[in-house]
C-alpha cells in the first residue's frame, strides 16, 4: 500500500481532531444558550472525523486496485500527454508576456489540442482554438474591461 493513498485521510483525521479541540475551547456565549456558538463547529469537526475515517477504511480496502490504476497511468500514451502538457505550459508562461494573451493562447491551445487530438482532427482543433481564444479575449477585454497583456 502506498503511503500517499492513506496520507490524505490521516491528515483529515488530524485536522478534524484539531478543529474539534479548538471548537471545544471556544468561549461560551454571554446571551442565550451559553453553548450555542459551539454546536456548529463541533458538528462540522465530528462530521469531518467520521467521513475521514470512512475514507481511510475505503483506501485501505481498495489499495491493491488503486495500485493497478496507478500502474496503468504510466503506460501507453499518458506519459507523453503529461510531459507535453507540462512543456507546453512552461512555454506558454514564457511567451505570454512578450506576445500577449491572444497570440500566446492561440499558440498554446492549438499545440495542446494537436497533441491531444492529433493532426487528423485539425479542423476541430483550429476552430476550438480560435473560438475559445477570441471569445475569452473579447469577454475579458471588452465586456469585463480587464486589461489583458
From TrEMBL:
Pfam families: TctB (PF07331)
Protein name: Putative tricarboxylic transport membrane protein
Keywords carried by this UniProt record: Membrane, Transmembrane, Transmembrane helix
InterPro entries tied to this protein: DUF1468
Transmembrane residue ranges: 39-57, 78-95, 101-117, 124-140
Keyword match Cell inner membrane: no
Domain DUF1468 positions: 10-149
Taxonomy, superkingdom: Bacteria
Amino acid at each position: 500500500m502506498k503511503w500517499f493513498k492513506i496520507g490524505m485521510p490521516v491528515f483529515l483525521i488530524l485536522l478534524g481532531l484539531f478543529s474539534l479541540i479548538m471548537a471545544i475551547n471556544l468561549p461560551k456565549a454571554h446571551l442565550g444558550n451559553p453553548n450555542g456558538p459551539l454546536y456548529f463547529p463541533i458538528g462540522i469537526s465530528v462530521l469531518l472525523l467520521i467521513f475521514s475515517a470512512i475514507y481511510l477504511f475505503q483506501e485501505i480496502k481498495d489499495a491493491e486496485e488503486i495500485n493497478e490504476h496507478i500502474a496503468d497511468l504510466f503506460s501507453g500514451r499518458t506519459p507523453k500527454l503529461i510531459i507535453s502538457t507540462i512543456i507546453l505550459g512552461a512555454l506558454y508562461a514564457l511567451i505570454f508576456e512578450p506576445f500577449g494573451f491572444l497570440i500566446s493562447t492561440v499558440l498554446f491551445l492549438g499545440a495542446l489540442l494537436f497533441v491531444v487530438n492529433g493532426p487528423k482532427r485539425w479542423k476541430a482543433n483550429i476552430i476550438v482554438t480560435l473560438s475559445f481564444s477570441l471569445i475569452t479575449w473579447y469577454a475579458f477585454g471588452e465586456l469585463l474591461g480587464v486589461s489583458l497583456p
